[in-house]
# Entry
Amino acid sequence: MKFEDLITEINGFGRFQKMLLCISFVGRFTIPCHLLLSNFIAAIPSHHCDISSLDAEGIFGNLSREQKLTVSIPAQDDGTPASCHMFSYPQFHLLTNSSSSAELPVVQCQNGWEYDNSTFISTLATQWDLVCDNKGLNKAMTSIFFVGVMFGAHETLCMNKPIFCLACRFGRKPMLLVSCISGMVFALASIFSSSFIMFAVLRFFRTSLASLWRLVCIIDSMAWAVGSTSLSLIAFCIRDWRWLTVAVTSPLLLSTVLWWVPESARWLIANGKAEKAHYYLHKCAVMNCKEEVISKIKPEALSIIVTDGGKKHYSYLDLVRTPKMRRLALLTGTIWFCVATMTYGISLNITGFGLNMYLTQFVYGAIEIPSKLMVYYLLDKIGRRKTEAGAQLLAGVSLMINIFIPKDQWVGRTVVAVLGKGFAGAAFCTIVLYSSELYPTVLRQNGMGYNSFLGRLGVSVAPLVLLLDSFWGHLSQTILCSVALIASLVAWQLPETRDRCLPETIEDVEGTGKSLCICLAISDYQNACNVQ
# Structure
């Protein structure tokens, strides 16, 4: 008997597993709030050069505020004051002459900026003047944060991050708790930052520290949609970046419920703690009304079950030792990088459509609910490959359409962008399940860790892609569209796994294996879920 067979015998998706799924939902709820927090705390409100020093010198006399701006700051095409320049000296003739000010001498802002506080009380941009020449630091901070995610142990801790795989040594449960608690500490510490560099460092450290059935994958991903939608409501009520950070960090106190999550039985057995593993398996069996199954197995027998056939140690190098494994790693890695870049490129752009940013964030989160439900249906009907490739294609087409829609037609642009966000979310959800089925059992953890790493690399690149709009207004959308279409083409090169036997060894992938493979037909899965 294999360990997977034992889990199935004690009802692999019974009340015990459903309880764990609910507990993990609580922990994952806060993840999108932190990953997308920069949409609000790093927002750049309307601003213009601060002319209070000129006013203090009495240069303006009895001029109204509008008149002061007219003679001090050039007007943009839409009539609003320029954000980064001011006249080298007051142009009083503009009060009586409405001629263009384009030819008048200007200089960069000399005494800082004055910000519109009607939407935000305070943001990172207003705190440290991250505007004009320093505007890129806003996106750089977001990239720094995601680099921390890439090297750290975030929500995919159990997927074995390539660098800091402390969970393999100290156990999944303690490292999960450490990740949540340290994240909360660094997030709260960041609100006391006295400089932008200090804030960026603390944001970096905020993040640096089995079975994927389709139903579990979909339900778990719903936590993202709920968290993303909730972020817009929280941000709407709290307009100061410090208090907003506190608000989205405080729920991490609920991570203490993770103390009730049992340690991985497989990890306990592999580390010589069979007695404790047997204890947790017994609790699982009792809750699932399968106590008679575990009562027949002694603790010492568990070691044999887990270690049987697993004497060989596999590493990340095994992902590239053989031809077909190399090809698989290249294809899945490319898709993870592309889908992550595209998804976050859309998610981090909530101000480019003319719609209220809070409403955009809310709709972006809400669209993921029907998107994930659609994935649940399509995985069974048309398979993984068509679902992944189709979702990527439709996301790319949505991005392409928005390139040609005039920017003043903000309703149409927003509708298309929301559809693109839904397709991007569907593609991300699908590739997680799809990848876990493509890799053989002996390399699944390594393969998912490798893919997750490349995905986080793509996320880190996304904010920098958005900066390219300063060169051409549609450049970032063109790049994201191209990335989505490339990922769609690559996805078509992957084999279908629906109703197929999944590989256990590298030899099975290479087509030279003789071992039995694990068959995860959808009907078998549904039957397992119906067992109470």
